[in-house]
């Protein structure tokens, strides 16, 4: 019945724009099992303890000043889909505003494609730090998708509490980056808006897209550095098992990962981590955090590949 209702929601897509976001939400949720969200007090306290400990450790190791987002939510899959439909619709709005008349069949295809993407992600995302880009406010958020955390922990044969703590530390490292660099959200928003404006004009701004990729490589790489230095337990087995699980996905899941650019995100992790490991080994973790002083101290593409260039330029 879920697939039937999902197709029905897409078939009923309406409105004047290229995507019916209400139908996207309905279709994605119809195709996605909600997942259990019966959280007893000990587990809820466990999430709070993990997030608090992660904040304290990251502050200490990174020598960063930051606060956690006011919104920290334990979610089911439908909650996550709703939150990210709002994000996707904000990002796509400038392009939608430029669109001329959209035939019904094209609207259905666009709506269906977005629903498939959000359903896939909703079934796989474990945690998310959401900087809430392109919104009218600066209220960031931290999400934990409990059904996915439990399912993956069981699949990997690891303790749920330990796996949850690992996810909490990873997401808090992202909160640390954006908290320590209040300019970072505006920097990303400006680059995104410039890229979108060029797309609506029918051109691709490769320089801006390259800058976005380099910035996100720094974001992902620094998070990996803090995870390595701040997490208060061994986790090589967790990373190895997660990587093996990713490589062992079926052909459909592998295709979805490629279409959604998740392979590129893994490359950002790896390239960024290599850059920050080199800087931290040479000058210390606090010195590596100098990338967040200002947009001018972000590494360039060449500096990502050759960290000594960044060290010579910034002298952290």
From TrEMBL:
Q: Which Pfam family, any one, appears in the UniProt record?
A: Zincin_2
Q: Which InterPro entries match?
A: CHP03883_F420-assoc, Zinicin_2, Zinicin_2_N
Q: What is this protein called?
A: Zinc-dependent metalloprotease
Q: Which organism is it from?
A: Haloarcula mannanilytica
């Amino acid at each position: 019945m879920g697939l039937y209702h999902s197709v029905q929601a897409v078939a009923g897509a309406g409105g004047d724009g290229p995507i019916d976001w209400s139908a996207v939400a309905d279709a994605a949720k119809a195709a996605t099992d909600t997942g259990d969200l019966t959280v007893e007090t000990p587990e809820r306290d466990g999430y709070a303890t993990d997030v608090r400990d992660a904040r304290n450790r990251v502050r200490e190791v990174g020598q960063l000043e930051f606060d956690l987002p006011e919104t920290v939510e334990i979610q089911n899959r439908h909650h996550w889909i709703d939150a990210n439909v709002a994000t996707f619709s904000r990002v796509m709005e400038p392009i939608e505003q430029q669109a001329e008349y959209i035939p019904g069949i094209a609207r259905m295809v666009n709506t269906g494609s977005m629903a498939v993407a959000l359903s896939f992600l909703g079934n796989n995302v474990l945690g998310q730090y959401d900087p809430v880009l392109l919104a009218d406010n600066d209220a960031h958020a931290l999400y934990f998708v409990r059904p996915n955390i439990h399912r993956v922990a069981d699949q990997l044969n690891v303790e749920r509490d330990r796996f949850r703590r690992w996810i909490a530390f990873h997401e808090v490292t992202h909160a640390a980056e954006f908290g320590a660099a209040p300019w970072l959200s505006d920097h990303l928003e400006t680059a995104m808006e410039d890229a979108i404006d060029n797309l609506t004009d029918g051109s691709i701004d490769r320089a801006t897209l390259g800058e976005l990729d380099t910035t996100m490589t720094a974001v992902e790489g620094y998070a990996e550095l803090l995870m390595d230095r701040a997490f208060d337990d061994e986790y090589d087995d967790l990373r190895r098992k997660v990587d093996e699980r990713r490589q062992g996905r079926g052909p459909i899941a592998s295709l979805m990962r490629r279409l959604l650019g998740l392979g590129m995100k893994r490359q950002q992790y790896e390239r960024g981590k290599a850059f920050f490991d080199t800087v931290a080994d040479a000058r210390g973790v606090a010195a590596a955090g100098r990338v967040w002083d200002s947009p001018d101290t972000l590494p360039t593409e060449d500096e990502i590949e050759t960290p000594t260039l960044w060290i010579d330029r910034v002298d952290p």
